[in-house]
Amino acid sequence: MKISRDWLQKYFHAPLPSAQELADALTFHAFEIESVEGDMLDVKITANRGHDCLSYRGIAKEISAILKLPLASDPLKEEVRLEPVTDAVSVLIEDIELSPRYIAAVMKGVKVGPSPEWLVKRLEAMGQKSINNVVDATNFVMFNIGQPLHAFDAGKLKQKEGKFAIEVRKAVAGEKLHALDEKEYALKPGMLVIADKNAGTPIGIAGVKGGSPAGITESTTDIIIESANFNGASVRKTAKRLNLRTDASQRFEQVLSPELAAFGMRAAADLIHKLAGGEIVGYADAYAKPHVPIPVSLPADLPTKVLGIEITKEKIRDAFTRLGFMFEEKEDLFVVTPPFERRDLVIPEDLIEEIVRIEGFDTIPALELPEATAPEVNQNFYASEWVREHLVSEGYSEVFTSVFADKGERGVLNKVDSVRPKLRSTLVDGLNDALKKNVQNKDLLGLKEVKLFEIGTVWKDGKETVMAGIVTEKEKAKEDPLSVFLKEASSYDVLPLSATERYQPYSRYPSITRDIAMWVPAETSATDVESTLKEHAGKLCVRIGLFDEFKKENQISYAFRLVFQSDEKTLTDDEVMGFMQAVYDVVDKKGWKVR
């Protein structure tokens, strides 16, 4: 978030240090600084503090605690009264989990016009263009204390018996909204919207963007101000689905306290009245479950135990006082009542973090790690690794087959499909199926024989057991406990490490195999012949392997198997014949004779 030192200074009587010094203080005690340009700081607010520090007030509180500079005033500590109450507007919330609080205020007789110079400069510092005094006032309050707000043109809303009605509800299929950014958005069921209940139409996307049907213009005289609290996850999903992320949605995503809505409303109403005149008719506050603070207890000796350095009671008191926390001391226990805006303070360790960061992370001395002790080895994992490495060294390849089967002792409550309703009682069936599939790709894999193994769980005789199984083209699949294979592998002194080759995606298309045998002079090696064939067989020749050779007088016969495959399509015989013709041509040119 961009922070203007000039704006921040309004929170303090004492002059603030330079922007760079402020950046250093925040870096060592609170947040990273992206950049410092002149009197502007770009502060990277961490996710756990977005609910209170995406605002000037939040940063001012941090600076106050870090530098021991008292605030001139704190807008969140002043008493807030939403009076008078009015029935000129009613508020209906469909789901209080998605909108815990919604405050609407009616103002009449406002005069919309340009904002004063000081307000224009404040918003320009945040990269915002001035729109008019009413809209600018709501944006200023959002940046200043962190509560997003919105203003509707009441004259564009429908009245019944002279009264307005605001509804916070989920969108219905087919609803659309023409937003203030001049774009039309198709609303999906489940998205939270603000609606004119009397008209039955949406006038805003909750927590994201207002709608142009009730937008403020120079002809506006009566307005309804919105200061609400919306579910962070709901706002985030809606903003993402609509590809519409705003300053308001960014703050609601951080899960703001519903208490903040009252402070935002009072500040916005007062500022609009100051800038645009008008009369505050009254407020309607829908707040079904008011916030109840939950105290957090911290044993006085816990910070020392956790941090490994002495943290005295005096340091704890000092940190809590500087942070403005309400706390009580009960013998060796500190009981802290977190401010409503600090939603990140829920366990003792959260308070310890506050103590140490205010004290300074650089005050914690570097300590050597304790001497490492051998961790306890999980026996199943250890045995599996021994067996796995042993079988791989013997030329086996590991497979993973489904635990669901056509038959077995234990049924599945939530079946994956209708044809495999049981948990397997053997590895044999899966291994046999895997063998059939892999034998077809033996040439592509460059294998003389397919040898497979699996280590997995089976459910048999009322028990859940880890088994190991093997199968080869020459040997039938068998089922044995892991310990049987472990005995064979135990001859190793250390766990052998298998070499890892380069991995690449496999082709979805079938391969085609062609063989070629030729007579070459006796002094010609198989490696030389293979290199020549590979060079001229083309890029789609994915494997060449020697499978036969014999010597006769002064000549040697070599037989090679060439495997062709494309990543883009199924090859035809004619295409492969073209590749082989290039091979035949080079063989003929070399003077070698095809058998």
Neighbour order of strands in the largest sheet: 4-7-10-11-12
Helix content: 25-40%
N- to C-terminal distance = 77 Å
Structural class: alpha+beta
Beta strand %: 25-35%
Radius of gyration over all CA atoms, rounded: 37 Å
Q: Tally of extended strands?
A: 28
Question: Major sheet: size, sense and barrel closure?
Answer: 5 strands, mixed
Stretches where pLDDT falls below 50 for ≥5 residues? 491-500
Number of helices: 18
Q: What value does the average pLDDT take?
A: 92
Shape: elongated
Q: Key terms for this structure?
A:
alpha+beta, 595 residues, 4-stranded antiparallel sheet
Describe what this molecule looks like in 3D.
This protein is α+β, with helices and mostly antiparallel strands and 595 residues long. The strands form 8 sheets. The chain has a 5-stranded mixed β-sheet with strand order 4-7-10-11-12. α2 (19-29) crosses α4 and α5 crosses α6. The model is unreliable at 491-500 (pLDDT under 50).
